[in-house]
Each structure stands twice: as structure tokens, then as C-alpha cells.
Design goal:
The structure is a homodimer of 333-residue chains. Chain A is α/β, with parallel strands linked by helices. Helices cover 36% and strands 17% of the residues of chain A. Chain A has a 6-stranded parallel β-sheet, sandwiched between helices. In chain A, strands 2-1-3-4-5 form a 5-stranded parallel β-sheet, with helices on both faces.
């Protein structure tokens, strides 16, 4: 568990996109973002107060989060000085980079000397159990996609926000590095050893109040041959009561797999639902979430309307329209 | 890759079942089994020549395989003396125990001093790629089960044997520890990190002659919520041309999951085949393999006959009957 709130480290990000992890934290957990730390030449700006390490500590920040991605995911030498100083000032460090904090001997030595923690959110820090399939109390919702990267995390976070606004009991459950950095906790599912995948999802979504919803961050796709096993572990380990179908309509082929067509939303429904019912016979498909970023407003609204009529399910783009109607679908469950 | 042939170490096995890994090697790769090494009090006997380490080296053995399971999977102190001597005599060691050889400092030190290798077949020794989904030449067959431990490995090994006897080109591809020890090579799939599961199966079953069959050892079940993600990675990473449905008819519930019923063979077919066709649109279900160990001969034959009529597929118990008819099904593919 990463200590919040954060100072968001933007480093020398070459552009706004380079700071998208920090942007996610600021968008979805503004209460976790005390301020931003930018180095000379940083081209990203989250609109947060620029702070020195000392100012951020005084404002209550506990962890410096590396919210910027370098080419190759490495920890740049230019960053090192700041990271070492942050440890010395009393910050923990958290990172989702491929280049692990724990593989940097100087950071390890300083963290140890200062009694601070290094969080590499790509690496599991828990010995997860093997899944036991026992029914848990409370309710769970999972977004499953026709492909990878079609907006499943965004959908779950937007539903969480809409449900909180309605006073519903809901918790976003992160299963990827960005989600973990946003919430401070979760399971880096793609880095979990095969035998323990479903168990890690059970661990992440334990017994809860009967009217509480876990909004589980989806991963991969049952139709994406590189990652379908990870998705399957979510479908069975998560025991979802409700599925949201997620889609991006403009993609020419499955992400990274030329020659593989995307399935239709109907195919996704007819594949995912029977599999989910193995673990939870009550599971229902309750809505559709479409990423229409690649379409004009008119085309998007017309597409959403068409899907809604065809599928008979509330269909929204949570970015354009918010996720209230999906939250309503869970409220009516 | 483990060097063959082997001396099979039965240690102080309390009964024949305790030596079942060694038994598997002797049954399926007798040419790999130069002899057996038994300690005082050993209650298992494979019917192989009892050999000293020196005799086995003289007979060509290159690796001492721990073919016995202790309670808890630990390396017993009583074994240590033999294992150290074996390294000194020039043997590599191979083990599928939970207790890793590499976690025993004395074995590591002696192996290093003697220039020998320690193979823990539960631990991946390769950096597998992420699956790319590209079609590979050659043909692949995968057994998928209604449950775990219904005889999928046995089926693949029996088919391999039958196909070799017919002069067909076939290779058994191990994905579990026993299979890896039997063949000397493979992928310990349940220990692979989630993101690389399907890629490890692609790596295991590369391009081959058009008339060559990989017989991929199945794992888990699409209906077993603890391990279904592992099975999914086999279905997509393996790109099977042919599926064998495997079943054990007397089981009261899914293995280790009270309250979870086994699916029917029809459900298994209707779930596995569409998923397999995502990666290989030509995939067909070509046969059924039933483990009838819990049934009388009459009941077994009658059951097999019933399934064959119902499913319209060659249906055999490869243990009672051999796998010739399944091999024929691949020959006719």
C-alpha cells in the first residue's frame, strides 16, 4: 500500500503525454495530488502548484510518484539527484517504470539509510493465494473488452466517480500499474505468476457489504491471444455479478496483432457471459462502454444510439458523457 | 534443456506412488532411464537395474533426476549426501520439488565447484516473449479437460507413442514439471509470469514441417476457476489445429472446488472450440479421451461407447485401450 497524498514528479517530460500517469492521478484522485515537481525543460503541466520537496513535505505529501514515462521506461540519471533528495527529505518513492527502483543500488542504499520505502508497482509485493472459488459477499463489476486498451480502466474509474456522487458504496480495484498509482493499492496482474492470477483477484476483491460494488479494472481481452489468460483470471477470480462490454469502433485490427479482427460486441457478450457464469451463475451484462475518441460528436452519438438499440443495453462513452447511466444500471441490479 | 539419459533417484520413497515421477519417465521414455538409485528403506521399485553413482556414470547417465516426492516437497537431509556425491561424480541434478535445488547453498556450492547444473523444473529458465499470434507452420494438438487432472498429459504422451509407432512426425511438448522431467525440456507454465504465458507456449511450439504434430500437454481447465487463465494461454498460444476433449466421469465436483459441477463434454466443446478458433480458424475437435480408472471394464466400455455415439467422435481411454484411434484422427486430419 502506497502512502498518500503524493507529490507528482513530472521530471523532464518532453510533452503532456509523457506525464499521463500523473495526469490520471490528478484527474481521478485530486485529493492525492498535493502538487507537482518539474525539472528544467519539463514540457508537461498538470495545473497543480509547483512545489519544492520541502514545500510538498510541509503540505503533507508522503510519497513522490514518478508520474512520467521515459523512452524505454528507464530512470534517467538526471532524475537521480531529485529522487535521492526526496528519500532524504522523508518521501517514499513509487514508480511504474520497467526500470525498477529496487534495481538502483544508490536508491536502495539511501532508502534503507533513511527508513523509506521503494514501491515498484509493476512487481507483486504480496504472496497471493491460489483461487478457491468460494462465493464472496458484496457485488462486483468487471469491464471486458473487444480488445486491449479500449477504455476499461477509464470506464471503471468513471463509474466509481458517478457511484460516489450518487452515494453508492463502490471501490475501484486496480489491476494495472496506472490504476495502482492512482489509488495507492492493487494487484499488478500482468506480473503475477500464472498459478496465482485468479487468487490475486479474489484477494483484491474480498467479502464486503451486500450493497457494495467493487469496480474491477479489466485487462486484455478474451479475444487478444497475447493476454487472454490474464482476462480469464479476472472473469473467474473476480466472480463478477455485472459485466460492462467495452469497445473502440475505429480500430482496424486487434492491438499489436495484424490479421486479427476485433470481435463484435455480440460475440464478446456471448463469450464472456457463459464463462463468467461458471464462477457466478447470477452474472449479467448490464451496459456497454464505447471509446469514441476517434469519431466526431455526431458520429459518436449516432454510433452509441445504434449500439444501444441493437444490444438493448445502456451504451455510453464515459469520457464524452460520464458513466451515470452505467452507475444507474448497477443501482438497478 | 536437461541432459539425458538419467539415473532415477528414488531415495527413501515410502511406497510406489511416491516414485510416480520416476515411473512416468520409465513408462514414457525408457531410453532415458539407465537405472534406479534406491536408499535404505526405499519401498518403490521401477524394475530397473539398481546402480551406484559410479556404475550409472559408466553406463552413460548424465543427470540424476529426483523422481520421488517427499511430504511437503522438501529435499530431505538424508538425500543430501547422495546429491552432493552425484555432483562430484559428474551428474547434473534435476528436480520438480517445491524446495528448489538452487535454494540449498551446499548444492549450489558443490555444483559450481564441479561445473555441474541444477535444474529446478518448476522455475522458468528462459525469458519468454509476449505472444505475437503469428501463424506457425506445422500442426498442433491440445487436450482440454472438463477439469484439472483428468488425464491430459497421459493422453498426449499416449498419442505421441502411437504416432511414433505409425511413423508419423510428432513431438510431445511438456508444460508441467512431470512432463518436463520425462522429456528433458518444456515450459513450467504455471510458474510463468502472466504476461508471458501465451508467448511461452508459442516459443515451445515453433514452426515445423507441415506434416509434423506438436502434442501440447494441457493444463487446468477453462471451467476451473483457479487455473482457467493458464488453460486459456494454451488455447491461444498453442494455436491448436486439433482439440481432444478429456474427461473423468466419476468426479463429484471440480477438483478442489466443492460446489462447482463439472461441465458436460458438449459444454467443453462449445466453449473451447470458438475460443481456439480466435487463434486458428481451422481448429477442429477430433476426439475424446476418458479416464475410466474409477470404473469396471464393462462400465468403462459402455460409457466410452455412449460418448462416442453421442459426440460423434472417436472416444477412448488411452490407458485401457491405447491412443491409436486418436492418432488415426490426426492422421486423417
Amino acid at each position: 500500500m502506497i502512502q498518500t497524498p503524493y507529490l507528482l514528479f513530472l521530471g523532464d517530460a518532453p510533452d503532456q503525454l509523457g506525464a499521463k500517469v500523473a495526469q490520471g492521478i490528478k484527474d481521478w484522485r485530486p485529493e492525492h495530488a498535493v502538487g507537482q515537481f518539474r525539472m528544467d525543460g519539463c514540457q508537461a503541466d498538470l495545473g497543480l502548484t509547483d512545489m519544492t520537496l520541502t514545500q510538498a513535505r510541509a503540505a503533507g505529501a508522503k510519497t513522490l510518484v514518478i508520474g512520467v514515462a521515459n523512452r524505454g521506461g528507464v530512470i534517467s540519471p538526471a532524475w537521480k539527484k531529485v529522487l535521492v533528495m526526496a528519500l532524504e527529505e522523508g518521501f517514499d518513492l513509487a514508480s511504474g517504470l520497467h526500470n525498477l527502483l529496487r534495481d538502483e543500488p544508490d536508491l536502495v542504499a539511501v532508502a534503507e539509510a533513511c527508513g523509506r520505502e521503494l514501491h515498484d508497482v509493476r512487481v507483486p509485493e504480496v504472496n497471493y493465494p491460489i483461487a478457491n472459488g468460494v462465493r464472496r459477499s458484496g457485488k462486483r463489476c468487471l469491464a471486458v473488452g473487444t480488445d486491449c486498451s479500449v477504455g476499461k480502466m477509464y470506464t471503471a474509474l468513471a463509474m466509481d466517480k458517478a457511484m460516489q456522487a450518487k452515494g453508492m458504496k463502490a471501490t475501484f480495484r486496480a489491476t494495472g500499474q496506472t490504476g495502482i498509482l492512482i489509488t495507492g493499492d492493487g494487484v499488478p496482474l500482468d506480473a503475477v505468476v500464472a498459478d496465482f492470477m485468479a487468487g490475486s483477484v479474489e484477494w483484491l476483491t474480498p467479502d464486503n457489504d451486500d450493497d457494495h460494488w467493487d469496480l474491477i479494472e479489466g485487462q486484455g481481452s478474451l479475444f487478444h491471444v497475447s493476454y487472454s489468460g490474464v482476462t480469464m483470471a479476472l472473469v473467474h477470480g473476480g466472480q463478477p455479478d455485472a459485466l460492462i462490454l467495452s469497445h473502440e469502433p475505429t480500430r482496424p485490427h486487434m492491438r499489436g496483432l495484424p490479421g486479427y479482427d476485433l470481435p463484435s460486441l455480440e460475440q464478446l457478450r456471448d463469450t464472456a457471459l457463459p464463462l463468467a457464469r461458471v464462477a457466478n451463475p447470477a452474472c449479467q451484462v448490464v451496459g456497454v462502454s464505447v471509446n469514441t475518441a476517434g469519431m466526431s460528436e455526431d458520429a459518436a452519438l449516432s454510433y452509441l444510439d445504434g449500439v444501444e438499440k441493437r444490444m438493448g443495453l445502456p451504451t455510453v462513452d464515459p469520457f464524452r458523457q460520464g458513466a451515470e447511466r452505467l452507475a444507474d444500471a448497477l443501482a438497478a441490479y
